[in-house]
Write a structure and sequence with these properties.
Layout: E1 2-7, H1 11-25, E2 29-33, H2 44-49, E3 52-57, E4 65-70, E5 87-88, E6 98-102, E7 115-120, E8 123-129, H3 140-160, E9 165-170, H4 194-207, E10 209-211, H5 212-216, E11 225-226, H6 232-235, E12 238-239, E13 242-247, E14 254-259, E15 275-279
Parallel strand pairs: 1-2, 8-9
Antiparallel strand pairs: 1-15, 2-4, 3-4, 5-6, 6-7, 7-8, 9-13, 10-13, 11-12, 14-15
Helix pairs in contact: 3-4
Length: 281
């Protein structure tokens, strides 16, 4: 199973690059974040034509998350998930997405569309876009912490149900200083505080999860996000804030985990690069 997570920073703007990724890597599951489109604007037809079923949580020009699953050849175009608090039947008719849940119980701003989960091949897969937090004195920062706390509660519930978990997305947290190009630059800002990192650790503990990239590359410094400004990408000035957290029970199946930097290059790139995780079937 090849799982990809990617903050596309507008799916409509980046659709050609998403289709390029699907054609190049043929992932089994894709977790998208920051899709930035209304529910009726989600490109279901184009994604279905590429051979993928989709469920999505779309709420307009901000945030938005989606799950794409490689469909059986005979699958008809799927429908997107309907907003709501509970399970939805939204899935491709090939049955590759099951028990879709839209939204996160206890999240501070429900309409921001930051959480989507479904069962794929016996694994509970979650695509999430954690709030940025803006600055330590912003009212957005405690909302970020509240979202992370709600995520830990939900992950604990899923673990208690006994199903393996893959939590993937833009978590807007650099887990360690080695995940920053220069820790001193971020010392007084978000993404690196003890408050954020401790809540990320609480999510991992609640779900019995591990960081797939760091598990495979304990010492390597690589990044998933680079500011558009001042040539940060070409200068290597980035952060690793896009993560795939997997149940420890999946660790023996983990074969590869890497970042495809090519998708941060070329025409109209996102400011994030996709993270790819391969598990043995």
């Amino acid at each position: 199973m090849l799982v990809v997570t990617w903050n596309v920073n507008s799916l409509r703007a980046r659709l050609p690059r998403v289709l390029e990724l699907l054609a190049r890597h043929r992932p089994d599951v894709v977790c998208l974040q920051e899709t930035k489109c209304r529910h009726d604007q989600f490109p279901l037809a184009e994604i279905a034509a590429a051979g993928y079923a989709a469920a999505h949580h779309s709420a307009g020009p901000w945030a938005g998350v989606a799950l794409l699953v490689r469909a059986a050849p005979s699958a008809a175009p799927p429908d997107g998930a309907d907003p709501g608090d509970g399970p939805s039947a939204a899935a491709g008719p090939d049955g590759s997405l099951h028990d879709t849940v839209v939204g996160l119980s206890g999240e501070p701003v429900v309409e921001e569309a930051r959480w989507l989960e479904a069962t794929v091949a016996g694994v509970r897969v979650i695509s999430t876009y954690v709030p940025n937090g803006r600055s330590l004195d912003s009212p957005e920062f405690p909302r970020k912490l509240a979202f992370l706390e709600a995520a830990a509660r939900r992950i604990g519930t899923l673990r208690a149900a006994g199903m393996p978990i893959i939590l993937a997305g833009d978590l807007n947290i650099a887990p360690q200083d080695r995940d920053l190009y220069d820790p001193a630059v971020f010392a007084d800002g978000t993404h690196v505080t003890n408050e954020e990192r401790s809540r990320l650790a609480a999510i991992e503990k609640a779900g019995g999860l591990l960081d797939a990239y760091r598990h495979r590359h304990p010492e390597t410094q690589q990044f998933t996000w680079w500011d558009y400004r001042a040539g940060h990408f070409h200068k290597g000035l980035g952060l690793r804030i896009d993560l795939v957290l997997i149940s420890a029970s999946l660790a023996p199946r983990l074969r590869e985990c890497g970042i495809d930097r090519d998708f941060r290059k070329g025409p109209r790139p996102s400011d994030h690069a996709p993270l790819l995780v391969r598990l043995d079937d």
